[in-house]
Amino acid sequence: MDNPLLLFALVAVIFVIAMLLPRWIRRSSSSRGRRAGRRFEEDQLLAILDELGTTVDLAMGPEGARRLVDGVVGRDPRKFTILGDGVYGIRFIETDDAIARLVPADVGVRLQIEEFREYLGRPNTAGFWRDLRTGVVAAAAELGIEHETSPVPSRFDRRETPDQGWRLSR
């Protein structure tokens, strides 16, 4: 390397690479991290939606089912609220963050989520819904009432409203 111009060019190339490389690495790793985070959030959301879409079928009439579910809901008023005739609220912040309803089904009556809100970018009532379902199933089993949890969860559509709610697909 007798030529100083060649040596200077090599040093300049190394200097430019050293300046640009960290920015490129940071940008590349940030975009990969965002993509991985989005995939994780989507997987979590799908699991939550499946949980909220799980229903319970009770082989009994509407009056008996309402009394059964009212009894389960009344055990934990901090989580659940009786909103009316076969309609129940599940609380995360408000009493009606998720609305569960008794509806007619092929075998008798179905308890299902009809709509729910999301807070902090995701639905937060799936655990409470699981608690309500478990309580209803346990109460039905204790009384010898046939019951079945749906193998295929219901589907929901996102509403574009300020409260970012979801509604059962019809």
Short summary:
It is built from three helices and nine strands.
Write the layout of secondary structure elements.
Blueprint: H1 4-53, E1 56-58, H2 62-74, E2 80-84, E3 87-90, E4 98-104, E5 109-119, E6 122-123, H3 126-143, E7 147-149, E8 156-158, E9 165-168
Antiparallel strand pairs: 1-5, 1-7, 2-3, 3-4, 4-5, 5-6, 5-9, 8-9
Helix pairs in contact: 1-3, 2-3
Structural class: alpha+beta
Average the pLDDT over all residues and give the rounded result.
Answer: 86
SSE string: HEHEEEEEHEEE
What number of structural domains do the residues give? 1
Name the poorly predicted regions.
none
Instruction: Report how far apart the termini are.
Output: 77 Å
For the report, how would you describe the main beta sheet?
A: 9 strands, antiparallel
Shape estimate: rod-shaped
Cα gyration radius (Å): 27 Å
Report the portion of residues in β strands: 15-25%
CATH fold topology: TATA-Binding Protein
Describe the 3D structure:
- The structure is a single chain.
- The chain is an alpha+beta fold and 170 residues long.
- It has one domain: TATA-Binding Protein.
- The protein is built from three helices and nine strands.
- It has helices spanning 4-53, 62-74, 126-143, and strands at residues 56-58, 80-84, 87-90, 98-104, 109-119, 122-123, 147-149, 156-158, 165-168.
- Strands 1, 2, 3, 4, 5, 6, 7, 8 and 9 form a nine-stranded antiparallel sheet that branches.
- Helix 1 runs parallel beside helix 3 (126-143) and helix 2 (62-74) packs across helix 3 (126-143).
- The model has no long low-confidence stretch (mean pLDDT 86).
